[in-house]
Design brief:
384 residues, alpha+beta, D-amino Acid Aminotransferase, Chain A, domain 1, 3 domains, 13 helices, elongated
């Protein structure tokens, strides 16, 4: 789950990490008042769940309270389009009015789960700011990485080592090490999948301050973090992902046009790999789970049918607890309630597979059956 910058900064502040003075507002009048409290000049930052805000015009400086109000009014109620949002953009329902800060140096710091080591990894760079993605792609040697042993945690020497490699002064190495250690506490205490401070700035008074922050919370941990669940902003979420969460599905929106419905996360990943190998692009990751009911299957399939991005659908079911005949009935129910002529390819294997195939064949629907996953992927790739 993503949260807004102002929410992430509030969490970091609770752990002793310096943040600028700021106020979240939802209208121009409050923005003007906030700027007056901050001394007149302030930065106005659109609060959306997307990176690239600065380049997209979502971060602007107002030199007077009136100018801050004008900027806020021009942003609130609009959609911000960045390289991470797609063409529709993300709605701006509020902005963060923040004190203008004198910056000596910008850095980048983050903690993220590393799939290779199956543990957290701390990442730091002197090339902080808006172009960190480009730096990572073109000058990877400027990115420092330290693996964190989950049994030990983030050690003080790791923080000092990173600070030394960044070329910081002795005083700032100590401050950086403390910030890094506190970020790891935030990471562990809140079951985060990502904490990112970009930039982490050395300000005019030689203080290390988090000028921007991003935190992602692991969705599966939210049952034990109700206070974090309350920070969810559903206006920032994809409508399909929102519906899938309400149904109780594991769903992730992707950029292709082949809707995939599978039972089991591993099988879903393998299915998407085979689809790509066959020359098509998955539109989603959708795992209906091992014990889905007929109604849940119908709801999941309807989710795909209602997605304008989906031009064809591939179903791959390995029947176990979820019987293939139940899956087939759910698919038929969804198709009868939602008229569509998009190509559908279904592969059923396992418990009651023959019964499931008979149900699909007798439904009168334009559904093609496949025996193997490779055959299914090839069929869906060539379907029009």
């Amino acid at each position: 789950m993503n949260i807004h910058e102002y929410q992430a900064k509030a969490i970091l502040s609770e752990y002793g990490i310096n943040i600028p003075q700021s106020k979240m507002v939802t209208n121009a009048e409050d923005a003007k008042s906030a700027a007056q409290e901050l001394g007149g000049k302030a930065v106005v930052k659109a609060q959306v769940h997307a990176g690239g805000r600065g380049k997209a015009g979502g971060v602007k400086i107002g030199h007077t309270p009136t100018e801050v109000a004008t900027i806020a009014e021009s942003l609130i109620g609009t959609n911000l389009v960045t390289h991470q949002t797609g063409t529709d953009g993300a709605p701006i329902n509020c902005v963060l009015v923040e004190e203008a800060t004198s910056i000596k140096q910008e850095m980048y710091f983050s903690i993220v789960i590393d799939g290779a080591t199956k543990s957290a990894i701390a990442i730091a760079s002197l090339s902080g700011g808006m172009d960190i993605e480009e730096v990572a792609a073109t000058e990877p040697e400027k990115i420092l990485r330290v693996s964190i042993d989950p049994g030990v945690g983030f050690s003080p020497f790791q923080g000092r080592s990173l600070g030394y490699q960044l070329g910081l002064s002795d005083a700032n190495i100590k401050a950086f090490s403390k910030i890094a250690a506190n970020c790891y506490k935030v990471f562990i205490d809140n079951d985060c999948s990502l904490i990112e401070i970009n930039p982490l700035a050395i300000t005019g008074d030689d203080t290390l301050t988090a000028l921007d922050a991003k935190i992602e919370i692991e969705e599966d941990s939210l049952f034990r973090h109700q206070s974090l669940e309350n920070l969810r902003d559903t206006s920032q979420e994809d409508s399909q992902e929102k519906k899938s969460r309400e149904i109780g599905l594991s769903y992730v929106k992707l950029e292709g046009n082949v809707g995939c419905m599978v039972n089991g996360a591993g099988l879903a990943m393998a299915t998407m790999d085979i689809v790509k190998t066959a020359g098509a692009q998955p539109a989603n990751f959708l795992d209906v789970g091992g014990g889905a009911s007929q109604e849940k299957i119908a709801a999941a399939f309807t989710l795909l049918l209602e997605d304008s991005q989906v031009k064809k659908i591939l179903v791959n079911i390995f029947g176990g607890i979820l019987r293939c005949d139940i899956a087939a009935k759910g698919i038929v129910d969804a198709c009868k309630n939602h008229k569509s002529d998009i190509p559908i390819v279904v592969r059923l294997l396992g418990t009651n597979a023959d019964e499931g195939k008979s149900i699909l064949q007798g439904s009168g629907l334009n559904i093609r059956l496949a025996e193997t996953l490779i055959e299914a992927a090839n069929l869906i790739t060539t379907s029009n």
